Structures
1.
Amino acid sequence: MTPRSAHGGHGTETVPHAPVFVGETRARLEGLFGKYPTRQACLLPALWMVQEERGWISEPAIEEVAGVLDLTPAYVKGVVTFYTMYHTHPVGRHFIQVCTTSPCNICGAEDVARALVEKTGCRELGATSPDGRFTVVEVECLGACGFPTPILVDDDFVEDVTPDKVAAILERYT
Amino acid sequence: MGYPHPSHPKETVVLSKYFGDAGARSFDGWVQRGGYEGLRKALGMSREAIVEEVKASGLRGRGGAGFPTGLKWSFMPKDVAKPHYLVCNADESEPGTFKDREIMRWTPHALIEGCAIAAYAIGSERCYIYIRGEFTEPWRVMSAAVGEAYAAGALGESAFGSGRRIDVVLHRGAGAYICGEETGMMNSLEGKRGNPRIKPPFPAVSGVFGMPTTVNNVETLAAVPHILVRGAEWYKGLCLGNPKSTGTKLISVCGHIQRPGNYEVTMGTPVKDILYEMAGGPRPGRTFKAVIPGGSSVPIMTREEAEEALFDYEGIVAKGSMLGSAGMIVMDDTTDMVYQIWRLARFYAHESCAQCTQCREGTAWTTKVLERILSGKGKQEDFQLLLDLSEQMTGKTICVLSDSCAAPVVSGIQKFRSEFEAYMTGSRQPSMAAV
């Protein structure tokens, strides 16, 4: 298995940043303010909202979040980069996470990871397929060790994946 | 019930009774199954009486440390002039452990009820349930259940008309094992990087948002309603001889085993019964080689040690390991122990928050030395190098992540030394290209 590589390629927004926190999204965020004693505590939820809407978290989005929550962009960037689930660059239309930690590893998880790389056309783990359809990353324990190998396709948790099931699973995502 | 398997006669089914029963997920379904009786009863009791009941039950934290729950609650200040918080640790990320996931997927109201009781008992009006970001399905189920609990009046400004405010807020993590450490979790909840904090101050004095805080695991809180309804004596009686470990425990069994899944047993059940009877034993034609009994952060047991052990906090310690989160990783005779120990070291190196030198450097160098051995370039001196590194990584850092990396390495060298030597002498082919 090749060592973990940086997820995906490096990209930047090519069009001016359109604000995320307007209208309904703004209202959703403000609805959270009363649930925490500080604005700062809404940072992880706000970053999730950005990623849900835009697919990844760009530098201008970081600046916007900082402005909305009275934080500095550098601070927000420090938090974004601590957590593995936030994408700091564009990823494929479907983001696939495959667990290869020991309990799954001894049950053949590396074969599943190889099959995912091969069938998606991603050249290696961490890369995006040339058609932009899939990004496949190797992740640490997904907390479903009794159902090896679990994978997470976008928000869909798929259990008991074996290499022979990979092609059929991928067909569900266009 | 050992979802996804039918219940085994040797299980003692309390928390897992409705695993696999989708009807138990709704508020009404839960009430029909006896749910929320514990909360109604608790709201009629004094805070102190609830804490005493839980203390008397002998319940100990199910997240890994095994600290007595009632005692932890009693550390919270009695004076509630400033906000108190309950944080439920649903960041289940310990390799080999998948029990809290099933509690949330199948019996979300059991957890909400436990949270509400605990919040009231510690003088808190708000509970945050911190759910790991990858748990998309438990998140959806929990979100729906919290909404129902508010609509039914179990939560909100006057829980069941008691005049006591109890709010439950779900908070989603974003991928970081270290946020399962309670002080890392508190920082994450505050919108910070999930770096663990130095203790003291302990959470009961200064926790999340600088306020008195109690952090409890999902399984711990889910057990609380049962204790209130059926009594501390009943819970204490669920014990096969060792009064320090009481109640039932969910065990996640995974790896090279016929029937992986969750099994619920009375504390003190022989590990042999769990492995061979409940979980069905090894795959055909195979024998067990090693068992990691408490999630990946505890010392590896040989087959012989595991088969002689009783499954409770003290029973596992007596055989050289720890109960931890009760995620049991089973490895059979096909397993390359050196490769799997390397894989665990890599896990810890990836998950280190990098605050402490011993952990940041130790986990990374341990991984690299193991890679050297796997590539056929290892030397005898590497044993001492790994052991020295592990010693520096044990008991010297803010949290126990680096200790957790050292545990499988040290026990692995002690118990499976010949497998390392096979790589060093060339009698085993390298399983990794030279780095």
2.
Amino acid sequence: MTLTVENISKEFEQRDVRSPALKSIHLEFEEKEFICVLGPSGCGKTTLLRIIAGLENPTSGTVLIDGEVVTGPTSRTAMIFQDYSLFPWRTVLDNIAFGLEMKGIGEEERHKMAGHYLDLIGLCGFGKNFPYELSGGMRQRVAVARALAIDPSVLLMDEPFGALDAQTRNMLQKQLLEIWDKTKKTVIFVTHSVDEAVFMADRIVVLTSRPGTIKEVVTIDLPRPRDRTSQDFAKVRRYVLGLIDEQQFTQ
Amino acid sequence: MPTEKPHWWHRILSKTVLLKIALPIIIIISWQVLSVLIDNEFILPSIGSVLYVLSKPFADILGSGSLVGNAMISLGRVLIGFFIAAMLAIPLGIGMARNGKVHDFFDSTIQVFRPIPPLAWVPLALAWFRIGLLSMVFIIAIGAFFPILLNTLDGVKSIKKTWIEVAHTLGAKERQVLVKVILPGAAPTIWTGLRVGFGIAWMCVVAAEMMPGTNSGIGYLIITSYNWGQVQVIIAGIIVIGIIGLGIDYLFKIVETKKFMWRELDR
């Protein structure tokens, strides 16, 4: 799998006023890489993710997956939203099986496959529950399983843990890394938390504020599992934080 | 339930229950008192004579058929008109909610027709379709159409954008998005529209059956009883209309709480 974002720019037009959201973004992603996109709010990081997912078209530039231009949603990418967006009228198992159902896989078969992902996220026994019976953290895990079930090459995550409390958030970060380790997907993870990015990422793409351009791509060499309290972690964290602070002062 | 269930008389004596049954009791007592004072069966019959009519729901009344028989005829008419209204209103509502051009094409016309009471169509219905099933179904369908349409529109519009986007990223085609996301997502609101629409349809049928020349239905039975001065049958008929309306609304509600619980709980 190769994923290339080639010179993407995006302008939004509202009442004849054009406002640029992204400018000349060029990125190449490695297979099985964990990338965090970090930037101040409104910098267009969500827009970038939506363009990669095929939910929005860039004003100029292209997204290439395995050499093919992305023109709409494909089964090679799966998106996970901050608000989980589970289908509340479906059970947990039927939520996870949604993508398989769309492919026309029979009920017995898809339930079996969905059950496997239910185990993977550590929620076996909750298959027959409805989303409203689960906590926020559990719901987001179901959303991850639903995305994984279609076996995409790339997982796109839009501030997936943003709505959760700090404790749940830390737990889910670790769990996601475990799942990533097992499934070896390429993950593109949008966040505004420096701490989260340094804890999770192989590389951090730091964006400038609107219009978003790439300020710097930071490679995180810290060994995994990472220790938030270590001096090395603090050092990297301080450096990335510096990148973000810098641009807030120069605004 | 771990706690012991309170005895039934405790519940009867609890204040809320008393509050709920107080007004019906007052109405029944004053009815009986008034009927004794007025002492004229052609104005206000006694409770006893109304209960007597209600106690024989299958007996023929004035050669016009029984209470239950006529009620079933009315219900059949309502079902036909209601079904036609739903078949038109639900697809139109979805189309209008999903497509701005479809919306703009229909919206102004709908806004003009919507405030017209269904019964204002009665003379036109008679002129076009003559007396009979067709004109009654026409009026019922008009009555049920607008609440179903407006609720469908509302339900589809209130669907979370991310549900549709998730479905697309998970490989759903347009038709699958419609069947697997839009319809189930809007179903609770559409159901509310059906419930309101059925209530209005039920009101319309009784009025439509009072049109001159009709010869069956609960509305016809009431108007015939009026012509024969049988006020106790009128009241019995009204009570039957109320009970059936309540019963159907209750059925709608049961489905709502069983099937669409997620709407209340998904926060």
3.
Amino acid sequence: MTGTAGTMTGRARTGWFVPVALAVASVPALALHGSYLMGTFSTIAIFGIALVGLDLVMGYGKLLSFSHGAFLALGGYVMAILSARYGVPVLAGVAAAVVVNVLVSYIIARATLRMSGYYLAVATLGFGVIVVQLLGSLPDYTGGWSGLTGMATASLFGWRLSTDFHFYVAGVVVMIGCMAIARNLMASRFGRAVRAMGDDELAAEMLGIDSARYRIQLFVLSSVFLSVAGSLYALSLRVITPANFDIVVTIDMVLMLFVGGKETLWGPVLGAVVVRLIPDLFESLDDYKTIMEGLAFLAVFIFFPRGLAGLLERLARKERLPPRPQAHRSAHGVLTQGAAAADRTAGGAPLIEVVGLAKSFAGVAAVSDVSFALTQGQLKAVIGPNGAGKTTLFNLLTGVLRPDAGTIRVRGRPLPDGGPHEVSQRGVARTFQTPRLFDSMTVLENVLVGRHGTLRAGMANGMVPLAGTRSEERQAVQRSHELLALVGLEAVADAAVTTLSFGQRRLLEIARALATQPAALLIDEPAAGLNESEKRFLGDLLIRLRDSGLTLLLVEHDMSLVMRVADEVVVLDRGKKIADGTPAEVQRDRTVIDAYLGPEVPVAAG
Amino acid sequence: MSGLWLQVLFGGLTSGSIYAMVAIGLVLIYRATRVLNFAHGEFVVLGALVTISAARTLGTALLPSIVAGVGVATVAGVLLERLVVRPVSRNPHFVLILATLAASILIRGVMMIVWGKDTLRLAAFSGEDPLRIGDAAILPQTLWVIGSAVAAVALLGAFLRHTAYGKAMRACAENPVSASLSGIDVRSIVVLSYALAAAIGGLAGVVIAPIAGIDFQAGLLLTIKGLTAAVIGGLENLYGVVLGGLLLGIVEAYGSAYISSVLKDALAFAILIGVLMVRPQGLLGTRAR
Amino acid sequence: MLQVDGLSGGYGALTVLREVTLSVRGGEMVVLLGINGAGKSTLLRCISGLLPVARGQVAAFGDVVTRTTPHELVRRGLSHVPEGRGVFRELTVEENLELGSFAWARGKKARIVADLGRVYDVFPPLQEQAGRLAGTLSGGQQQMLAIGRALMARPKLLLLDEPSQGLAPLVVQSILDTLVRLRTEGLGILLVEQHARAALARADRAYVLHLGTIVREGPAAAIAADASVRGSYLGSNVPLGGV
């Protein structure tokens, strides 16, 4: 759920985090000074840094990657080797480790790009094992299984880090800094793209988000946090062995992530407290430690999916809302902007032109020899009985499927074949038969994701937003509010998407698609599941959109709606186009009637 | 050196057989519920430890001990499905996988309490005197391992091909909704799949226990190796994963003997990553994942 | 034989069916018509237990079965042939058919053989293809196989979801005529169809489902002549059977 604000206009929201975090972190510092538990807490703080990285990939990105142990190890060993053998100072060592990790993580990210879910899990597990084994098997370089010693005492700007307390302070400062940066990032354009991808990759792609690129960036960014944590960890331990980073540690970190609360960035460190502190406090229970961990882990999945952070948030209950910018009630501005974005193609040249399109699955033709054109400012409907190929047609038009034959041209140029995000960037937007919304975000955030293509901020601007970025975010928020007003959802802008009715979900998806400022909007069965009044509203909305210059292509079954709003109708039956004309013409067309009602099939005698 | 070559081959087939049996179980569970069971290695360990306890501590004869071991593993499999997978089944798949990971930690913890941290061994089934095959000296237990794997694959194959329940299992794996409409109680078939998978895993543990010492931690690496074999083989295809398991075992054995024994695990995973990069769906997998 | 009363249901947030009431008697063929999205498939799924029912009741063979599981319903005599056939592509034709008797006759060889014989009588092409993998069959053969598999459970009531989908007219004719034959043997049939004409020509009664509610019901011939039915398909008022 929304642990962080989806917009950056709420400075009040981000501003309190650092002071509160520092205050909370000072408690162990004061209470445990000199106690043996200080060491535990310094480790917890350092793991907190690593867990920010893990939360990005596994929590927000929902990628089942087990490579974090390996990146932690690389961070630790590069630092340790440089310090022990070459006397390299701390900051240089940390930087060098980061460079190594960025390179390695980039390679791994590219290599695993095509691997989905389970295969990614097993491959990254394997990668982790490989790294640990290599570290253990090269004693000349790494000290082998018995470990690496001889690190110089860490010294940061003249301040010597020699006690657990020092490392605690250093760890906490870096951890809070990392959390703050990451929180900013997840509330920015980059973060919204990542969260959208994690929720529904296809829907995100249809909004112009290049999921491959973001996945790689996320992976590499996460490895930076892991690297820094690894380096600090090595310095704090003085002696490191490969066992400090093995698969048990990898799994422990996943445990911490879930018990503490994924997708919060600050939650997982609570998990680290639980996993590290409780065994230290109750040493007599050492034998039961593993059982309790297993039970805690299971309990989280079954009863507390949002972890400790979720419980705390529920107790706190106070949602501090960002100050709302002035939302213009008039939607006119939105629409004319959309129309202006569409090139005025000269004299009726088609916006979208489909010629001889064909697609088969397992030898069965879903679409065969379909041709039609969509001129700008037109509202065209595609109808046909079940199995006629309408959804396949949409998938072909939006780059989800590649045609076997035929061409698709948008504004005269062929459809790009790099995937749905390229099609979206060309100006084609789409909604789905069942609305594919981003369930972890609010209504407003969903629309904001649609603004992705019109914004410029990248990762760096996301982490430390300057005036220009903040201003473009404000504008995006304003535009999003206007779009919500257009579809009548202004009042629920900050509601969680999961609380919407079906009709509202449908309208939200349309608003989100409009946010991409498309030249053409393809809507798949918009009336399905709506009641009469909702359909009336929808019909009015579609007409207004068309009148403002937007081009619309609808798949629809509800003929009364089609009659009301469509300029022209294309009829498909079994993958072929059987009619093309005005609604009235199509209604009277004999072949269309036969297609729907089926042929007269005489009853067999006897 | 031809003796070494043969020796290594048998070593590879032995470990490969274990990996294959683990992988078979993983595939059965995957086909039933689309979940990668990270707790699978624990069934292997459980089978071994229970058998060892029955035989050594309680003095039971070998065969009943084996039955006890496999039986407990089977029960554990059913409990996993009932208590862990089913309550969490509404969640996305990656949460399910992590839930089985959580279960593996729990089972490990219980095993640690019951059996402690020592490495335990079981007496070999037919003695320790090595057999001479060509220039190689092979432990008789190796043949038990390979034989068990062959028997498991053959029996499972026959079960799936020729019995009503076996065909029902194949149907459920392909299309659970249609299976339900055909009158098949999909839930009980799922439980059966877990039970069979755990039983085969338990058997693997029993036959390998005399050769390799078993301790409460051994499950994790076995799970990973089994997953590797399953992924290489393509996750859906039973014969594919058997092939994957044997391949893994053999490559590990030769790599360990002729290249470096320390890097043998790393070698295995390097192969895995290599295969997946070239064929993301595994060697014999059908659909591109 | 089948009595549905005031049934409302759908998918989570989306309520598709509102207060649907219909009935099917033994030995009669009832057609359920309506455009895409009207809720026909949803209704069948609610009856056969695949979907939970929010309100209302389903009764079959005298017992209330609203929350019964699909496989239990098969045991009681209600079989549902889903949209898209749902054959097990990796199994042979004969294996598919055998699974149809799983609920009743697991392993009872003699009975299975007898039932297979009956199904092959009804659909001779299946016997020719008995050893082929179901995934290699043509659409029409797969539809026969799906119906055959349902028949193996010796149902008293058959629910069919758009059997004509994607099939050539002659094949549709053959399948519909087979259904007529089965009906005369006492089987009750609830047939969901989008292609109204062919179904209405053979059915006894019909219901029209529009936006989740029953808007028309009556003898098949009357429905065929009813102008408003066509209206719900194409938004105009021309009788189905006429010009």
